[in-house]
């Protein structure tokens, strides 16, 4: 009886230890409440950018419903008119038209940082850019046309921030084209400077310094 009691005590001790350890462990968050992905993965990006009908099923994660990205005639005309264009060639009207169409499309905000006062992608953000490259070449997304939009915080003048956001969007595009052989015409780069703050109540917040990626049309219509 004593031996059995000791064995039972040992088992209970192990169970208690396991519960205690389990209570002290925490899993990294997929994203903050503001929608910004910090430790973003390839799967995170695919889930966010896939057309609604093709959203991969994932336990434990909920993706907000988004409008069907199938473009109408006006959207298709706009997309075709800006594909292959340089970032600096876009007029302010075209930038606003792109923003208007993009707001209802599958998108994701990536917190990609750059070296100070430059368009060099920081080392700490490289994993996110690489995850983006893998995602855009995945079967679920490959062949779509994507907008890569650069945004800054409110520091500095409008002209300076506009130029900086364009150069940073271009840097992301060059990396994706060079490292992942994504067609340059499938990546429409646009800069918005500080004109579209994600967190207007805190204009200097890090959340405002972001790169937004938008799936403008799915691969069944991209080549039309």
UniProtKB/TrEMBL annotation:
Name of the protein this chain belongs to: Outer membrane protein OmpA-like peptidoglycan-associated protein
Domain of life of the source: Bacteria
Transmembrane segments: none
Record has Isomerase as a keyword: no
Domain OmpA-like: 101-219
Compartments where found: Cell outer membrane
Organismal lineage: Bacteria, Pseudomonadati, Pseudomonadota, Alphaproteobacteria, Hyphomicrobiales
Family annotation (Gene3D superfamilies): OmpA-like domain (3.30.1330.60)
Alphabetical list of InterPro entries matching this protein: Bact_OuterMem_StrucFunc (IPR050330), OMP_bac (IPR006664), OmpA-like (IPR006665), OMPA-like_CS (IPR006690), OmpA-like_sf (IPR036737)
Keyword Signal assigned: yes
SUPFAM superfamilies named among the record's database cross-references: OmpA-like
Signal sequence extent: 1-31
Ranges in coiled-coil conformation: none
Keyword tags: Cell outer membrane, Membrane, Signal
Main localization (coarse): membrane
């Amino acid at each position: 009886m004593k031996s059995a009691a000791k064995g039972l005590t040992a088992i209970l001790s192990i169970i208690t230890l396991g519960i205690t350890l389990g209570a002290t462990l925490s899993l990294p968050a997929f994203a903050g409440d503001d929608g910004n992905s910090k430790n973003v993965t390839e799967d995170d990006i695919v889930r966010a950018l896939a057309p609604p009908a093709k959203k991969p099923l994932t336990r434990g994660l909920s993706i907000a419903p988004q409008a069907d990205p199938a473009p109408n005639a006006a959207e298709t005309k706009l997309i075709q008119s800006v594909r292959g264009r340089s970032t600096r060639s876009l007029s302010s009207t075209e930038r606003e038209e792109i923003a208007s169409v993009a707001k209802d499309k599958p998108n994701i905000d990536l917190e990609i940082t750059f070296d100070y006062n430059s368009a060099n992608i920081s080392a700490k953000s490289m994993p996110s850019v690489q995850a983006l490259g893998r995602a855009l070449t995945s079967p679920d997304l490959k062949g779509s046309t994507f907008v890569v939009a650069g945004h800054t915080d409110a520091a500095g003048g409008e002209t300076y921030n506009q130029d900086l956001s364009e150069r940073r969007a271009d840097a992301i595009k060059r990396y994706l084209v060079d490292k992942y052989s994504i067609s340059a015409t499938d990546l429409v780069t646009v800069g918005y400077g500080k004109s579209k703050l994600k967190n207007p109540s805190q204009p200097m917040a890090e959340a405002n310094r972001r790169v937004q990626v938008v799936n403008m049309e799915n691969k069944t219509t991209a080549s039309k």
